[in-house]
């Protein structure tokens, strides 16, 4: 099976990577359709930035942003996920047509999230997370980052099971950049086979993140990180990732085609 491409549709004025250009619903819908035409398999629609240091968004504002976009993209035939930490938004998004709830907090930010998802037939992506963006780096203290991320994600899997979500509905995400400093992200990526070995689908979200900018030389514009993102996508695919979450679908699609042809021994 080939690695899927989850294209990012951020409906926020302050996302670090597209600067709020898609705040307007029509522009966000157009962006989603463009990503589909470029080869995205899934579209991830989010209305609250998780950029380091960002403020929370009121849940009503989040829903005003994402629900019309989700409804339109689902109606256009897209498989849509909703990027939210709010149970109420997750439920409304599934009612509007989302098939996946993408919770970067793994159900920790909102105690109602796992029961809310259990009451639907949607899948859920559980991210590794230690706290909100405002202070997440303060929590980036690890003895053994790989062991702790795996153990904490296993805890979220147990919590999801306890809430009544079947294991087949779970997607695990190591939460690149969430409560992790640069080097810790590389340690987690190097150990990706340990995560894919758990048996659930694994989603990797490295697109344009700061650790790539640091690797490339710091102040490179975020779009300059797309080549490094595409290489990361190919390597994640090689290590068994189910999907990669990216801003630039075109470059990641090229990279994934190379990875798949190499692995199979034919185009
Ligand atoms: N990263 C961001 C937002 N949502 N969802 C998942 N599952 N995994 C991630 O790594 C992830 C995410 C932050 O990036 P953005 O602001 O560019 O969307």
Short structural summary:
By secondary structure, this protein is an alpha/beta fold.
Could you name the key traits of this structure?
binds pterin-6-yl-methyl-monophosphate; 267 residues; TIM Barrel; eight-stranded parallel beta barrel; single chain; alpha/beta
Could you characterize the architecture of this molecule?
It contains ten helices and eight strands. With 267 residues, it is α/β, with parallel strands linked by helices. It has one domain: TIM Barrel (Alpha-Beta Barrel), CATH 3.20.20.20. It has an eight-stranded parallel β-barrel with strand order 1-2-3-4-5-6-7-8, surrounded by six helices. Helix 2 runs parallel beside helix 3 (87-96). The radius of gyration is 17 Å and the shape is globular. It starts with a strand and ends with a helix. The model has no long low-confidence stretch (mean pLDDT 93). Pterin-6-yl-methyl-monophosphate binds at residues 8, 10, 15-17, 49-51, 83, 102, 104, 125, 127, 173, 175-176, 203, 205, 245.
- In total, how many domains does the architecture comprise? 1
Give me the CATH superfamily: Dihydropteroate synthase-like
Q: Please outline the major beta sheet.
A: 8 strands, parallel, barrel
> What molecules are bound to this protein?
pterin-6-yl-methyl-monophosphate
What integer is the average pLDDT? 93
The Rg value, from CA coordinates, equals 17 Å
Q: Between the first and last Cα atoms, what is the distance in angstroms? A: 14 Å
Which word captures the global form? globular
CATH fold annotation: TIM Barrel
Helix-strand topology string: EHEHEHEHEHEHHEHHEH
Number of strands: 8
At CATH level 2, the architecture is Alpha-Beta Barrel
CATH class: Alpha Beta
